[in-house]
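Private note to self, pasted from the team thread so I don't lose it. Backbone tokens:
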């Protein structure tokens, strides 16, 4: 804190009448909203660190480091351009810190529901004036007032039409709204996956890391400062890398997984987009102007203009998934120890991705969906526990984005509220889309526990999803397996579940061959 405080003190301007703005931890931008509406010399900025928020969940140490390092650098960057900064640290949270501010404050509406709830009394009392968040790319009207169920595809078309992005007149460029069908290729090592940029931490970032390592020593995960973009310049480096190295191959390998590259052609930008170091509008505009294969260009734009906007609307419209089912399958098992550091399951796919997460505080979409959320769903884990795990572990997780993705999409906890079927799969899918099976002691064609869990999930929950037309083929295949194999699936699945629940490590000896 000493270096940061000393630097801020050195450059912080004091003179002048100022309009005071409060920017929460995830609004680290001066190019939109109230921060952009008057000259720096007339702007005052309040930033708050809340140890209470950091301690609320076992957040990954890298996530805490990312947020604090970016917020402190944002303070210095703003002071350097003439904004007067008040940097507050309050043990009892954001509302308590703001109550002590004697100046009238304006802020953009918080994205996190948790923060909106905390600040509601201050807003109601008129001490804090809230204006709409200028970072979103679509309106509630475009999302529509109907539903649930809500569907991303219909919303995405509306937004494409309204914005004109990737449109030729009233037709989608290339004649299709989505190129996903061309985009489901596994990756076999070619073209080479890009190496993410490395960053050099300065004293301010080092000080943050020291703080996290001492104050939050019991939090899981490790800090890798060379992988941590902390300044606006670092954010620019990451985005330039993503455009140059990732986007040309983004589409075809979007769904692929690999042991040799955690990110493949994914941009790794979500942690910085969600902090507003990188603005979604800028990203979409720049990608639309790039000379890229359309499958990659459309595929990437759909993630931001489609999925990211959509999940935010779902969160708002359902009051944080409170007005829709949140445990549709009525499941209550605990998340097994294998999701935390140091308790491998013996399943190479799960163990590899879990290790990745505790190393990087990040993994890409398909490993989140088809390994982590899939396994938790097949194990009947209470979806709230799975959600809280993702919220703690990922550096891009905030309630508005993690809840729809995990409750709404990954675990089918909200039923068909925002997806058309459960995202579950057995070993055959994992083998097709990744290379983890090559390092596993199980064989996807013979004895993969994921496949056993998959069949047994269909036995337990088939009746609940039987009206879903997208489940009919697989339910028919399950029925064909016959009673004897159903009984064997059940026996083996129970053994797998109880071993994992105890923190045990599965080996082929636990299961007899020929079951998959
Ligand atoms: C179970 C589960 C949990 C998830 N939790 C989060 C989360 O906590 N925070 C988060 O930002 N994303 C979450 N996602 C969505 C997605 O996996 C991540 O946004 C993406 O993997 C981030 O890596 P990236 O920046 O390399 O993304 P890329 O693959 O490069 O995609 C580009 C951008 O699109 C946006 N995006 C893509 N899909 C989604 C989506 N479904 N929801 C929101 N934004 C999306 C992100 O801003 C991302 O940076 C989750 C997905 C699943 C299945």
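Design output:
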């Amino acid at each position: 804190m000493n270096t940061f405080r000393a630097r801020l003190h050195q450059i912080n301007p004091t003179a002048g009448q100022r309009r005071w703005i409060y920017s929460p931890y995830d609004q680290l931008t001066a190019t939109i909203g109230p921060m952009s509406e008057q000259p720096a010399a007339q702007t005052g900025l309040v930033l708050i660190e809340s140890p209470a928020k950091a301690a609320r969940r076992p957040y990954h140490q890298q996530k805490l480091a990312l947020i604090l390092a970016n917020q402190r650098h944002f303070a210095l960057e703003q002071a350097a351009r003439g904004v007067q900064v008040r940097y507050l640290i309050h043990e009892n949270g954001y509302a308590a810190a703001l109550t002590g501010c004697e100046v009238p404050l304006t802020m953009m509406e918080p994205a996190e529901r948790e923060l909106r709830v905390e600040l509601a009394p201050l807003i109601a009392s008129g001490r804090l004036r809230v204006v709409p968040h200028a970072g979103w790319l679509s309106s509630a009207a475009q999302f529509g007032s109907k539903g649930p169920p809500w569907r991303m595809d219909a919303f995405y078309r509306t937004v494409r039409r309204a914005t004109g992005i990737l449109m030729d007149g009233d037709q989608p460029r290339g004649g299709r709204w989505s190129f996903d069908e061309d985009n489901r290729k596994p990756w076999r090592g070619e073209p080479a996956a890009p190496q993410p940029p490395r960053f050099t931490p300065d004293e301010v970032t080092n000080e943050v890391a020291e703080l996290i390592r001492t104050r939050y020593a019991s939090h899981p995960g490790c800090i890798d400062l060379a992988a941590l973009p902390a300044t606006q310049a670092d954010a620019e480096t990451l985005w330039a890398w993503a455009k140059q190295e990732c986007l040309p191959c983004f589409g075809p390998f979007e769904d692929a997984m690999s042991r040799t590259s955690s990110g493949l052609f994914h941009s790794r930008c979500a942690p910085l987009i969600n902090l507003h170091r990188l603005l979604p509008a800028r990203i979409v505009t720049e990608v639309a102007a790039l000379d890229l294969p359309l499958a990659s260009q459309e595929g990437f734009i759909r993630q931001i203009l489609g999925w990211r906007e959509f999940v935010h609307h779902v969160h708002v419209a359902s009051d944080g998934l409170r007005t829709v089912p949140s445990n549709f399958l009525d499941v209550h098992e605990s998340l097994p120890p294998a999701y935390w550091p140091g308790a491998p399951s013996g399943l190479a796919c799960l163990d590899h991705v879990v290790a990745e997460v505790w190393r990087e505080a990040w993994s890409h979409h398909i490993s989140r969906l088809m390994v982590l959320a899939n396994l938790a769903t097949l194990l009947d884990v209470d979806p709230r526990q799975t959600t809280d795990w993702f919220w703690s572990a990922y550096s891009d997780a905030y309630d508005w984005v993690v809840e729809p993705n995990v409750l709404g999409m990954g675990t089918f906890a909200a039923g068909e509220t925002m997806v058309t079927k459960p995202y579950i799969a057995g070993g055959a899918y994992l083998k097709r889309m990744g290379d983890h099976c090559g390092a596993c002691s199980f064989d996807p064609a013979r004895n993969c526990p994921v496949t056993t869990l998959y069949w047994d999930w269909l036995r337990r929950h088939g009746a609940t999803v039987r009206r879903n037309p997208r489940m009919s083929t697989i339910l028919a295949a399950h029925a064909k397996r016959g009673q004897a194999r159903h009984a064997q699936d059940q026996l083996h699945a129970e053994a797998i579940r109880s071993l994992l629940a105890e923190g045990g490590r599965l080996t082929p000896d636990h299961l007899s061959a020929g079951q998959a």
